[in-house]
Design brief:
Layout lengths: L20 H33 L16 H17 L11 H27 L10 H31 L5 E6 L3 H11 L6 E8 L6 E2 L2 E6 L3 H7 L4 E4 L6 H11 L5 E4 L3 H6 L3 E5 L2 E5 L7 H36 L5 E7 L5 E7 L23 H8 L7 H7 L3 E3 L6 H10 L12 E3 L1 H4 L8 H13 L3 H17 L7
Helix pairs in contact: 1-2, 1-4, 2-3, 3-4, 9-11
Length: 490
């Protein structure tokens, strides 16, 4: 039997939004379509002018007026907008990868520009609107379409992120659960105002006095339908570990009200298996739970990327590495490089090389783990650590096959022996080569941070490896290094 609502149930963290959430989402999508259209038209104008000034192709002596290409502009813009829609580029997500979006936009714009050119030939030939569309103009328009579309979408994203942070746009969120998972999710939402979630309260299987990170417990499971209606909840997260199947089905049934989005934190089994692949046994379907080791062409492809990156990197960066060696020698006595035994593929040890970033007697007191503002780090070493420059010599490890460009970061043997005892499935991160950078590192899990969370990110990378994922991590690492935006780099 549902209990009476608490006195403050209707006033918990009210949201100052006058428009309905559906109207705001529609406005966000419509404004993005408008931004894309304006950027595509602007790209055609820039490309048109670029054809007369840029020396990539032969500059025409004269070209028709811009109005001559009006049918092409309409086709170019309309076709690409439609292709954006079918590529789900208008299915807005709060968190997304800019690199993945760039890859999608490049593909869609390229195909759309070619399709617009072909459609023009097919539809407008032998009509009053027939025009000649030069290949050089097609190239310029396609190139600037990618650049300006990315620019416009970034401005649109920042504008709506600001509205979410200011509380103008957002979703009321109800969290179901009171354990460590609910605590982690609540903490993450608190630390990410750009997501636009307004936590209205916590629901548990039993009545509890108190709160969770400042949010009150406002009901039990049976109260969920009423709370969704009364508090205008748009998002529900089921943050419960080790739930029974019938319990999960019952909770989802209770949450199915209107257009509420329901998200379920994966249980232990789903979390362990990662991606599920369907196989068969003589016509009978089977779920492949573990098939994550790189082998065959996948292993060769990753090794080819490692060799290419290591060779190119060592050649291009060698002058800067030589200059760094001179600075280290001038700053303090001791060796230029620092060698240390780390554990890599299958838990096998290998000698990892780095630029020395600490004073020679740094470990004389027995302490090995680096913490923020560590007094053992030299001034030059602190600067190198901020942008990962101290790890550049590991390209030699990659060339020799000890490491990969991307993979779980290697740890010292004594830490591995400790972590494998305390952290479930820790050794699964050693099923692939250790990496100079990795999924955990680009997500800020480095330095004196949670080993269990770092392990989960490493395991996710091992289970979801792809060549594009490696390229994405490399690009993010380079960007974070150049902008010194590495979290917990010390």
């Amino acid at each position: 039997m549902a209990r009476d609502p608490q006195p403050d149930a209707y006033t918990i963290r009210p949201r100052s939004i006058r428009w309905s959430n559906e109207h705001l989402k529609a406005l966000s999508t419509a404004s993005l379509v408008l931004v894309d259209a304006l950027m595509l038209v602007a790209a055609f104008v820039v490309g048109y002018n670029g054809r007369e000034t840029l020396p990539i192709f032969a500059i025409p002596r004269e070209q028709p007026s811009l109005s001559y290409y009006l049918p092409t502009i309409v086709l170019h813009t309309g076709i690409i907008i439609v292709m954006f829609y079918f590529s789900q580029l208008y299915h807005l997500k709060r968190a997304f990868s800019r690199i993945d979006q760039l890859r999608t936009i490049i593909g869609v714009v390229t195909l759309g520009a070619l399709l617009a050119s072909g459609t023009q030939e097919f539809l407008l030939q032998n009509t009053a609107l027939e025009i000649v569309y030069p290949r050089s103009l097609l190239f310029y328009v396609g190139f600037f379409s990618v650049l300006l579309t990315i620019f416009g979408r970034e401005m649109h994203r920042r504008a709506w992120t600001y509205l979410r942070k200011s509380g103008v746009v957002g979703d009321n969120l109800l969290i179901v659960g009171d354990g460590s998972i609910a605590h982690t999710i609540t903490e993450h939402v608190n630390g990410s105002p750009e997501l636009g979630y307004n936590i209205v309260g916590i629901v548990s299987d039993k009545e509890i006095d108190g709160d969770l990170l400042g949010y009150p417990f406002i009901g039990i499971y049976e109260d969920i339908p009423r709370l969704i209606d009364d508090l205008q909840v748009e998002q529900v997260i089921l943050a419960i570990s080790d739930y029974r199947r019938d319990e999960l089905v019952n909770l989802i049934t209770l949450c199915q009200r209107g257009k509420v989005d329901i998200k379920v934190y994966p249980d232990l089994f789903a979390h362990m298996v990662g991606d599920l692949n369907v196989d068969d046994l003589g016509g009978r379907p089977l779920l492949t739970v573990r098939d994550i080791a790189l082998r065959g062409w996948r292993l060769s492809l990753k090794r080819a990327l490692d060799l290419l990156g290591a060779i190119v990197g060592l050649i291009l960066l060698s002058p800067f590495m030589l200059f760094t060696a001179l600075l280290i020698r001038m700053e303090s006595r001791g060796s230029i490089f620092y060698w240390q035994v780390r554990m890599g593929l299958d838990g096998k040890p290998f000698p990892m090389i780095k630029f020395r970033s600490m004073y020679p007697d740094a470990e004389s007191n027995g302490r090995t783990w680096t913490v923020e503002n560590d007094e053992r780090v030299t001034p030059l070493g602190r600067s190198m650590r901020r942008n990962n420059w101290d790890e550049i010599p590991q390209l030699i490890n990659v060339l020799l096959g000890h490491m990969s460009l991307v993979g779980p970061r290697p740890e010292r043997p004594m830490y591995v022996r400790d972590f494998r005892q305390r952290i479930p499935n820790y050794m699964e991160r050693h099923r692939e080569k250790a990496g100079m950078t990795g999924w955990a590192q680009v997500n800020g899990m480095r330095g004196d941070t949670s080993i269990s969370e770092r392990t989960e990110l490493d395991r996710w990378y091992v289970e979801h490896w792809s060549l594009w994922l490696d390229i994405t991590i490399i690009i993010r690492t380079i960007w974070q290094s150049l902008t010194r935006s590495n979290r917990n780099a010390y």
